[in-house]
Design brief:
Elements lengths: L2 H13 L2 H7 L9 E16 L6 E16 L2 E8 L3 H14 L5 H29 L12
Antiparallel strand pairs: 1-2, 2-3
Protein name: Phosphonate C-P lyase system protein PhnG
Organism: Chromobacterium sinusclupearum
InterPro entries: Phosphonate_metab_PhnG
């Protein structure tokens, strides 16, 4: 399992609404995973970069929830913005199941593909809304 693939599915799960995860995930989730860390909330420091690529600086803190579980031989971790511990627990369970080679392709097709498409559509819609409110400024040259 390469890191970029895992990062992709974790990003999709973390940016998907919990209501959608509750629709898709439960049929495949185990009844009682072994919890290494039940959901807990805390603060995390966000960093920015001057000009996007310059020196790092502390931008501020954000509330996050995290959870970790073990299903079979696989350990799953879930992190999500905000204080919704249930969301972090669902992500952790999904992460553990997605690491299982026997179930990986089936779960990617059932979960990640539709969630990624929905996420892409939500981002495109926000982009269209922002573009619709764009204001064009122009400069008039005086004295010519």
């Amino acid at each position: 399992m390469d890191t970029s693939t895992r990062q992709r599915w974790l990003a999709v799960l973390a940016n998907s609404p919990i209501e959608r995860l509750l629709e898709l995930l439960p049929p495949a989730l185990p009844a009682a995973p072994r919890w290494l860390r039940r959901a807990e909330s805390g603060l995390m420091m966000l960093q920015g970069r001057s000009g996007g690529s310059g020196a790092r600086f502390n931008l501020g803190e954000i509330s996050v929830s995290r959870a970790s579980c073990q299903i079979g031989d696989h350990v799953g971790h879930g992190w999500v913005r905000g204080g919704d511990g249930r969301h972090a627990e669902l992500i952790a369970q999904a992460d553990a199941l997605l690491q299982d080679p026997a179930r990986h392709s089936q779960l990617m097709e059932q979960w990640i593909t539709p969630l990624a498409a929905e996420l892409s559509e939500r981002r495109a819609e926000r982009s269209r809304e922002a573009a619709a409110s764009k204001v064009e400024f122009f400069t008039m040259v005086r004295g010519e």
